[in-house]
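Quick one, probably user error.
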């Protein structure tokens, strides 16, 4: 049930980059998934997302403002269901219950988090967890999953409770600044320490406690791990709270494929003489395509939208291996012609791996704005690029990556709009091949391969894309030669008829 469906909105907010930066500084959770657009796009989220605990504390602050005479909080149970993107508007509602309130957080009609708050006095004293101090890391720890099972420690608050209280004054007045600081410390624990870099905060259950010894910190101990789903459960205590935090360790992003691993799979010089533009060539399938082309002797240009450092790294690796590679800033949602002005040569071939975020939770079967977002890239963006390239070289050969998701039997749930846009792209390519020859588009429905978006969602067992990429590269590279062969054969037949 979407939040707000049967209760008035308690508060509404669009979380900005400035909000992220401030909360990260106060909580100590500087995980790149929250702050770094380039790093975040290589995660399950696909873009920077709001800290779940930030949502929780904001909701508690809104509740305390709306209900200034609240009794103390006895316990709280939170579940984080979906990501809230930075720049996305979130609404929170409060439903009264016999025990207290249930807060629901919603974005784009989808419930993204839920928090049940039971009211009443604390019923027990805190039991201190025996643990050694753990230094607050400057960067999120990148731990193997097996190393998490025995972890424990005492983590200091990243900021004094009074400093954190300035961001959530009403909640701090109601719960006490130390409990607010303790809640903030749980995101520091999950995002920076355990699981750390590749973490997802799933939920928590905490009870209010009377502190025996006041100490600005949170003790923790891992009590359960499950490698099948990469679950990590921890007991926590500190700041007047005690309970359990549940998290998951994400599958790390798909590793880059080194040039040395690709050099032996192509024939020396088999792509010599080609000038290939790879849209989205800074990572994933585009990166593999660019390296295969360069290993085969093609001159390559890789484009990027936000990952300039990644594109530069790909180009450097190609050049170090003896290949030729340039980089190009390119946004598929903008007109192609001005962006191609920087090209030093007219491409003979182009590969189109531009894509918006594919996996995104939504509340309805069909969401029109989501379809429009995909059409803008997969149809309009591709056709716009093709026209701009055709103006430079009439016989350009392009590759359009479709997906097995077009087939209903192969389509995962929640990918309807994606499949509709890819299907429309296929239809466009058929018409282009008929109307714009000698321009030609090779279309291939790719299976699910291990890329940034799929690796963290589906798991690490998907095949590497390199073996699947080479056949369509060879097919696309062959088209100008095929067109020339057909042209020569047709000319010879006409000459024979005339004789």
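Nope, works fine. Designed sequence:
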């Amino acid at each position: 049930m979407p939040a707000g469906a049967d209760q008035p909105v308690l508060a509404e907010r669009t979380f900005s980059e400035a909000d992220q930066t401030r909360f990260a500084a106060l909580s100590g959770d500087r995980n790149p998934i929250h702050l770094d657009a380039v790093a975040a796009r290589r995660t399950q989220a696909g873009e920077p997302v709001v800290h779940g605990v930030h949502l929780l504390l904001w909701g508690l602050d809104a509740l305390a403002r709306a209900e200034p005479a609240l009794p103390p909080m006895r316990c709280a149970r939170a579940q984080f269901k979906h990501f809230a993107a930075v720049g996305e508007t979130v609404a929170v509602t409060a439903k009264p219950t016999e025990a207290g309130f249930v807060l629901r957080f919603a974005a784009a009609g989808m419930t993204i988090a839920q928090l049940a708050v039971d009211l009443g006095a604390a019923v027990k004293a805190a039991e201190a967890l025996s643990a050694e101090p753990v230094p607050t890391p400057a960067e999120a720890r990148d731990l193997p999953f097996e190393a998490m099972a025995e972890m424990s420690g005492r983590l200091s608050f990243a900021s004094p409770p009074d400093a954190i209280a300035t961001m959530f004054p009403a909640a701090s007045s109601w719960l006490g600044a130390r409990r607010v600081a303790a809640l903030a410390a749980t995101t520091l624990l999950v995002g920076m320490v355990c699981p750390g870099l590749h973490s997802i905060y799933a939920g928590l259950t905490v009870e209010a406690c009377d502190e025996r010894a006041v100490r600005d910190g949170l003790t923790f101990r891992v009590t359960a791990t499950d490698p099948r789903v990469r679950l990590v459960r921890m007991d926590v205590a500190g700041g007047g709270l005690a309970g359990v935090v549940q998290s998951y360790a994400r599958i790390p992003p798909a590793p880059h494929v080194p040039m040395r691993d690709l050099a032996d799979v192509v024939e020396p010089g088999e792509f010599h003489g080609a000038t290939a533009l790879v849209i989205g060539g800074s990572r994933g399938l585009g990166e593999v395509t660019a390296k295969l082309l360069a290993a085969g002797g093609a001159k390559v240009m890789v484009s990027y939208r936000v990952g300039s450092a990644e594109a530069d790294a790909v180009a450097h690796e190609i050049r170090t291996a003896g290949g030729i590679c340039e980089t190009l800033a390119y946004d598929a949602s903008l007109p192609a012609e001005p962006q191609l002005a920087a090209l030093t040569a007219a491409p003979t071939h182009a590969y189109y791996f531009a894509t918006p975020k594919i996996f995104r939770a939504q509340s309805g079967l069909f969401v029109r704005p989501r379809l429009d977002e995909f059409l803008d890239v997969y149809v309009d963006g591709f056709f716009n690029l093709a026209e701009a390239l055709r103006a430079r070289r009439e016989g350009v050969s392009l590759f359009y990556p479709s997906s097995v998701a077009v087939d209903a039997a192969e389509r995962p749930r929640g990918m309807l709009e994606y499949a509709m846009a890819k299907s429309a792209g296929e239809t466009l390519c058929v018409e282009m091949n008929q109307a714009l020859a000698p321009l030609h588009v090779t279309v291939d429905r790719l299976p699910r391969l291990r890329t940034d978006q799929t690796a963290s969602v589906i798991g690490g067992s998907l095949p590497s894309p390199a073996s699947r990429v080479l056949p369509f590269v060879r097919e696309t590279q062959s088209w100008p030669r095929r067109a020339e062969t057909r042209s020569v054969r047709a000319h010879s037949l006409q000459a024979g008829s005339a004789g």
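The longest helix spans residues 368-392.
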